[in-house]
Design brief:
- This protein is an alpha+beta fold.
- It has two helices and nine strands.
- The N and C termini lie far apart (about 155 Å).
């Protein structure tokens, strides 16, 4: 039987069973769930981190291997370049040596041809001349830039058998400090003690030696004069430019 109090509001009531441990169980369950979830997240994170570290370690190892391979390749290329440069240097030196040898051989051949031409001119002159003439005149550079070797050949046709007698004068002309100047061979060569060089030969005579130019003198040529000691002999004057052969 339900009693109602007049003038107050009436609420419906429900009777529930009393369970004093249900709240504790719910809290324990929530805590357990949180712990399980946290542990799962932790182990999953550790797993992902380990996987990432393994990949990074593998990539690092691959990079180190690649660096080692590149260093080895670079060293091999460096040695190949060094070998190629050394081979090129040796090749250039050999080429320069061959070129120098060829130049020397060509110079020797040219000199031999001049010798042959000279002796042919002595034995069988093409112009039919039978008198005295200058076969050749050569100036060569020495190691000293102011010193030169000279070689003069005077010849007579083999058709004539008389002994040639006379004198030769050798004068270097040029400019000294801008002014015209000439020097007899005696003043330029210690091997000559007279301004006139004695000539005495039947077929040819070589006159050779070394001269040294004074400081400030610029040579322009050489004047040669050949004079017979006889009354009706030869009298030859000839000028050569200052043309110097490489020794």
């Amino acid at each position: 039987m339900v009693l109602k109090v007049k003038g107050s509001k009436q609420y419906r009531m429900k009777v529930v069973p009393h369970k004093p441990f249900s709240g504790v169980i719910a809290v324990v369950g929530v805590v357990f769930l949180v712990l399980v979830t946290s542990a799962g997240s932790y182990f999953a994170g550790q797993y992902q981190l380990r996987q990432s570290l393994d990949r990074k370690t593998l990539e690092h190892t691959q990079v180190l291997d690649r660096v080692t391979a590149l260093q080895s390749e670079n060293e091999s290329l460096r040695m190949r370049v060094a070998t190629a440069e050394q081979s090129l240097t040796i090749g250039e030196q050999a080429s320069e040596s061959v070129r120098a040898e060829l130049v020397q051989k060509e110079s020797q051949i040219a000199e031999l041809k001049q010798e042959i031409s000279f002796y042919r001119g002595v034995m069988a002159p093409e112009d039919g001349g039978e008198g005295v003439s200058i076969g050749r005149f050569i100036l060569s550079q020495t190691g000293d830039p102011k010193s030169y070797q000279y070689k003069l050949q005077i010849k007579q046709s083999a058709a004539r058998r008389d002994v040639v007698k006379g004198t030769a004068t050798f004068t270097v002309v040029g400019r000294q400090d801008g002014e015209p100047k000439s020097y007899p061979l005696k003043e330029l060569s210690e091997q000559v003690n007279s301004e006139s060089i004695q000539l005495r030969f039947k077929y040819f005579q070589n006159i050779e030696g070394e001269l040294r130019l004074p400081e400030g003198f610029v040579p322009e040529g050489v004047e040669l004069s050949l004079k017979s000691s006889g009354r009706k002999g030869f009298n030859i004057e000839q000028r050569y430019g200052w043309l110097v052969q490489e020794s």
